[in-house]
Write a structure and sequence with these properties.
Rossmann fold; Quinone Oxidoreductase, Chain A, domain 1; 4 helices; homodimer
């Protein structure tokens, strides 16, 4: 049996069970150890506010338009930040370079389910380095999002950078920008997040609610 | 009296004394505390191998050509990495924003001499931050050279960088590249320099003489 988290309607969550499927060629089976919740995207599906639930995405106009829903309840297995242990490898893949072996810890995307069946091309090179705290693998995807932002910002040592919002991706951005040589001013409305941002290298922390009238860089 | 270091001929160094000059308008007088030696440029003047001593620089062709010497012995007061204390400020400059005050520690270029008379436009904003070890000011100019190299290399967090040569500027480059997010491989032929490079953040250190046949990144 495998279990999967699904939203059956706005603000309705359940854990469903299914028979485990057989493993098709070209795939790996993974037993989930961690699955990160994406607080932004997933809450819209949970709350029923995700625009795909009621409208159609017009890719050319880059707008949502009235029309057929792009996704419908039940929404099963969302999540894109999984860590798990390989339990089965399709026989023809065994020993191929870069393919994780049974027992390996891997990171990837197979959603909030107890086991994933994942195409090998999405698992190649996804074995966690030995010695790494496995939970860290759940941040690989959000880390890549923050990393892209930092690379796109083209930061160089000694520059000043402000990061607005210190949620998961904001704090990862703060840390990566600091590692990229920036003096980071972290901005959020929650002091707890700002404290974490400081511990991850922010030079200045600005509470947008309570510090708004103060200087960020007192002299 | 002020004293100045001068090369009177190849491999001949002396310390000469002169009367202190009066302070012209628009200038500051500085008593030298440190003066960094530029091991590359200055040794060529000391040894007599500097091409300017025997030839003419053709700026258009970007070549040295036979012709009149661009510099001649005695070569007095070389050096471009000074730290000192302001002892006199031309009266009309007193209190102007950014102009160092008597007693301020400043960094700048006035050569290997006991006191410098420096135009104010080259001293504005050159007051050392309080709390900084004054000797660090002697690295401002060479630091800028290394910093330019790091900025020109357009490094981003997670990239690999090799720095060939771990003299003063090479080690500053190693450190700034590491602060800019690079994994630095430091290369030199002297183990002592490589040890310092590691302590300043180099991930790999490669002795170009003894490690040349080994892998820099063992697996």
């Amino acid at each position: 049996m495998e279990t999967v988290v699904q939203f059956t309607g706005p603000r309705q969550v359940e854990v469903a069970s299914h028979e485990s499927a057989g493993l098709p060629p070209g795939h790996l089976r993974v037993r989930t150890r961690y699955s990160g919740i994406s607080a932004g995207t997933e809450l819209t599906a949970y709350r029923g506010t995700n625009p795909y639930l009621t409208r159609t995405w017009d890719a050319e106009a880059r707008l949502f338009r009235d029309g057929a829903a792009g996704i419908e309840y039940p929404v099963a297995g969302w999540g894109y930040s999984e860590v798990g242990e390989v339990t089965e490898v399709s026989p023809e893949l065994v020993g191929r370079p870069g393919v994780p072996a049974p027992g390996d810890l891997v990171w990837g995307i197979w959603g909030h389910r107890s086991e994933g069946i994942v195409p090998v091309e999405r698992m190649t090179g996804h074995t966690l380095p030995s010695g790494l705290e496995p939970l860290a693998g759940a941040f690989a995807r959000v880390g890549a999002i923050a990393y892209n932002a930092v690379l796109a910002a083209d930061i160089h040592v000694g520059e000043d950078v402000a990061v607005f919002g210190q949620g998961v991706i904001g704090r990862l951005t703060t840390r990566l920008a600091q590692l990229n040589g920036a003096r980071v001013t972290a901005v959020d409305a929650l002091d707890g997040r700002l404290a974490t941002a400081r511990s991850y290298g922010a030079t200045h922390a600005l509470n947008a609610r309570t510090d708004a009238r103060r200087r960020a860089h007192p002299r």
